[in-house]
Q: What sequence folds into this?
């Protein structure tokens, strides 16, 4: 019985493996996106009260929520700040994985016709739950 239990624990823990000590993986970034991006569902509509809701859920601090509401994202911010700033209206997703197929980074492109970004748009790259780069999209 003990041998069987150890095998099951190994298999279950291997499903959500991470390239990072923090445990950040595809499932965690997916969950963060779907919770934090609820500030905007369609172009032209932004719901700042949803950024405040993220504070009460301890996903953002008051300062981070204020950054999100002003659409001011910086390198080093939590991924939730970026998602709350620009919402669900993504124009392109990119994922980078290692040889073990573990998520290493995720890039999300937002364009000005779909989200609250300066034209033509921004590409935000996230790794280990933090914004690691912000690039202006070229026309």
A:
């Amino acid at each position: 019985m003990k041998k069987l239990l150890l095998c099951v624990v190994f298999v279950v823990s291997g499903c959500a493996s991470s390239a990072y000590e923090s445990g950040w993986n595809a499932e965690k970034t997916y969950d963060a996106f779907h919770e934090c991006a609820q500030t905007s569902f369609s172009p032209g509509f932004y719901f700042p009260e949803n950024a405040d809701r993220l504070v009460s859920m301890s996903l953002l601090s008051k300062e981070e929520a204020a950054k999100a509401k002003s659409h001011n994202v910086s390198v080093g911010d939590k991924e939730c700040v970026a998602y709350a700033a620009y919402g669900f209206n993504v124009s392109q997703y990119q994922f980078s994985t290692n040889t073990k197929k573990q998520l290493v980074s995720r890039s999300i492109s937002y364009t000005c016709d779909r989200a609250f970004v300066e034209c033509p748009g921004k590409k935000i790259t996230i790794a280990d739950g933090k914004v690691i780069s912000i690039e202006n999209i070229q026309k």
Q: What stands out?
A: The mean pLDDT is 87. The longest strand covers residues 103-111. The chain has five helices and four strands.
